[in-house]
Specification:
The structure is a single chain. The protein is an alpha/beta fold and 615 residues long. It has 18 helices and 25 strands. It starts with a strand and ends in an 18-residue tail after the last helix. The model has no long low-confidence stretch (mean pLDDT 92). The structure holds fructose -6-phosphate.
Length: 615
């Protein structure tokens, strides 16, 4: 949830760290800080609130040096304040620590330190680590040896990095358990660490990803790796990252979210490319899907898991797979799944969906499923992320870096990949004819053009968002394939606008939700000409009969719908199973423009963070 960066080399570390933090701010933005070590001194600057406050603090009291660490925080233990901002230092301001995650046993570790006279200056769980290190460093141990003694004492999920004047020109970074990524980036005569790829892209594409239980010792001239369990030296592969710095920048858009929405024609093309074998017309995934055709044929059940937006993709995946491949599916919330004693039967595939690949709840549920004997497949965007290592099979989303906290293009690519995956399963199980599969795939390849057309409707969506931006409540209705779309539309509006919004299956209205409807309630109804169209039109009439305001998302040639709605947003027609990838676009744009009109921070909504690496 928090972002960590580090630099050792011959350049001035401060601007490099601040730039890195700028790219990680989406992970947390309650406070930020840097620690720089030079000439036997450690200097720290910290500030509550957004990174710009830290920039001001540094401008007022500059600090320079050639090694340093930086942090942007999403508060867990201790309210957002300068005092609780990282880095934290020991009693003698000799060593600094930054941390992403939660140290569950910090209270037990702290008590003896306090009795021994250590002075704590924050309410965080993190500070205990630097006082433990202080004890070890006093005994003259190098930083990595001290860390090897301290880190095994910590319980919980964490990524940490240390810098000390006792062992200058060195950063020690470690990853404990699943949550909290640490990446090492390699430069010429300089090296970096960060929690996420975008913070490093400006400097290098050569990176190594720490696995849980591993530590990196980083100096300007080299990087070595140790195992936390026994301190043994280990070799780690260097990976070449394909993303470039340009694709991780705003490119003239007011917000990352808007840029990411407009990238969708391209990323959906990237998702489709290479996924259909020319000769056979069969869907193929790259080498990371190792399921054999025989295993696909014997699958008895699929459980799909995802948090928030990824969870709505999981629900759409259930509808798709059951419809095309006739395999019984469940869609589940990972934080429930992992603790509810789930039943895993033989030939059970558990599919996780995650943009970041670092969501603690999702990873926990995957581990639980694996323990119970399921085969794990993950649909993930970030290469090298923990989900991609935990899973037996991986399908990469090809969405490129998603920086905005609100997930948009990752959601669309999840929908497209799930559509392809359902066809893939159906082809191997013989539940679609070659002709039907060919037709479904041809429609998929047309999708980027259709997405482009929907994005052309943005001025109209914006006008509607401006008209209704002050409403206190919103209702999103969908049925069938677009029930998950209604849930996603409400979710996005809530997280960005801070208004209350509810998404529901339209058939459920009469069981309670109808009581909410009056003339102040905008109701966004997805009413495409599919198998649920007539039912949906009746639901719209029910809303109108109770004076609700209806905004319909409808097919571009549906003339009739205008009689039933106060406003209509048009999308081009595609097949029902693919339609969620189009219908969601105006809903994302609507949420964006309502939030922007309200003056909210669209890319960094309050109380949220991009990578949710705590439970
Ligand atoms: C919604 C949103 C969150 C994430 C959720 C899962 O816009 O951003 O609901 O979808 O936290 O994140 P990943 O996909 O990284 O596992």
């Amino acid at each position: 949830m928090c972002g960590i960066v580090g630099y050792v080399g011959s350049r001035d570390a401060t601007p490099l760290l601040v730039n890195g933090l700028r790219r990680l701010e989406y992970r947390g933005y309650d406070s930020a800080g840097v620690a720089i070590q030079e000439n036997g001194h450690l200097e720290v600057r910290r500030a509550e609130g957004k990174l710009d406050n830290l920039v001001q603090a540094i401008a007022q009291k500059p600090l320079t040096g050639r090694s340093g660490i930086g942090h942007t925080r999403w508060a867990t233990h201790g309210r957002p304040s300068e005092q609780n901002a990282h880095p934290h230092v020991d009693c003698g301001a000799v060593t600094a620590v930054i941390h992403n995650g939660i140290i569950e046993n910090f209270a037990e570790l702290k008590a003896p330190l306090v009795s021994d006279g250590h002075r704590f200056s924050s309410e965080t769980d993190t500070e205990v680590v630097v006082h433990l290190l202080e004890e070890e460093l006093k005994r003259g141990r190098p930083l990595e040896e001290a860390a090897l003694r301290v880190l095994p004492q910590l319980e919980g999920a964490a990524a940490l990095a240390f810098l000390s004047v006792k062992d200058p020109g060195k950063i020690v970074a470690a990853r404990i358990s699943n949550a909290g990524g640490v990446i090492v980036g390699y430069g010429e005569g300089e090296n970096f660490i960060a929690s996420d790829i975008p913070a490093l892209l400006e400097h290098t594409r050569r990176m190594t990803f720490l696995d849980p239980g591993e530590m990196a010792v980083v100096t300007a001239t080299g990087v070595s790796f140790r195992r936390l369990e026994d301190g043994a030296q280990i070799e780690k592969a260097v990976q070449q990252i394909q993303w470039d710095a340009v694709s991780a920048a705003k490119a003239g858009y007011k917000h990352f979210m808007l840029k990411e929405i407009h990238e969708q024609p391209r990323v959906v093309s990237d998702t489709l490319i290479g996924r259909v074998e020319r000769t056979s017309g069969r869907v193929v995934f790259d080498d990371d899907l190792k399921l054999t055709d025989a295993q696909v044929r014997s699958l008895q059940r699929i459980t799909l898991l995802g948090c928030g937006t990824a969870g709505y993709a999981a629900l759409a995946g259930k509808y798709l797979i059951e419809r095309l491949a006739k395999i019984p599916c469940d869609a589940e919330i990972p934080s429930e799944y992992r603790y509810r004693d789930p039943v895993v039967t033989g030939d059970h595939l558990v599919v996780s969906l995650t943009q970041s690949g670092e969501t603690a709840d999702t990873l926990g549920a995957m581990e639980e499923a694996k323990k119970r004997g399921a085969r794990l497949l993950t649909f993930v965007n970030v290469m090298g992320s923990q989900a991609s290592r935990l899973a037996d099979d991986v399908i990469y989303l090809h969405a490129g870096p998603e920086i905005s906290v609100a997930s948009t293009k990752a959601y669309t690519t999840m929908l497209v990949d799930l559509y392809l995956f359902a066809i893939y399963l159906a082809q191997r199980r013989g539940t679609v004819s070659a002709e039907e599969a060919g037709q479904l795939l041809a429609e998929a390849f047309h999708l980027p053009t259709l997405i482009d057309a929907v994005l052309g409707e943005e001025p109209k969506v914006k006008a509607l968002a401006y008209r209704y931006h002050q409403a206190r409540d919103f209702l999103f209705l969908g049925r069938g394939m677009n029930y998950p779309t209604a849930l996603e539309g409400a979710h996005k509006l809530k997280e960005l606008s801070y208004s209350h919004a509810e998404g529901t299956a339209a058939g459920e209205m009469k069981h309670g939700i109808n009581a909410l409807i009056d003339e102040t309630l905008p109701v966004i109804a997805i009413a495409l000409r599919d198998s649920t169209y007539k039912k949906m039109r009746s639901n719209i009439q029910e809303v109108r009969a109770r004076a609700g305001v209806v905004i319909a998302v409808a097919d571009d040639d549906d003339e009739e719908i205008a009689e039933h709605a106060d406003a209509v947003i048009r999308v081009p027609h595609t097949n029902e199973l693919l339609s969620p990838a189009l219908a969601v676009l105006p809903l994302h744009l609507f949420a964006y423009h309502v939030a922007d009109r309200r003056g909210n921070d669209v890319d960094q909504p309050r109380n949220l963070a991009k990578s949710v690496t705590v439970e």
